[in-house]
Amino acid sequence: MLTRDQFEDFCFALPHTTHVVQWGDASVFKVGGKIFAIYSRWDNLDKDVVSFKASDDSYRILPEQEGIEPAKYLARAKWVQVNEDAGWDTETFHAYIENAYKIVFAKLPKKVRDSL
What we know:
By secondary structure, the chain is an alpha+beta fold.
């Protein structure tokens, strides 16, 4: 499982990202004003989770794996949340977070993309 610092370091390295802490203590990363990844703690799970926008195929497949489920409040937009039970290594997290960034960036209005 990524630590919060590892998550933030990776997200800050992606171009044009912004960061806010909201919803209590959630670390929220955006591009063009749109969220692509969140690091938070779900007390009911007693675990840290990383949530991100998933591709259509990933959204169908990932929740079938242990430690991964549709993201609370964001599932309708095809987000998943991953906790330590998934057993993911750093590279796997990075690949999915970068893909989430690319999905969100691609859906930004052309004018916004061009301004970044």
